[in-house]
Amino acid sequence: MNGLAVEVEVVTAICAARVLIRQLRGLLVDIGHAISAWRSVRDALRDEQEEHQG
Fold this sequence. Notes:
Layout: H1 3-53
């Protein structure tokens, strides 16, 4: 394998790693939004339940 082929493979690997990192960041943001939404629903249900009890 010559130097150019190695260089192309390294660049390809770096690009693939960047794409994966971007996707992981997006996934973490989506998970954060889902947790926030779940907490909002949970709190709203708890408030509604307290109104019916009180």
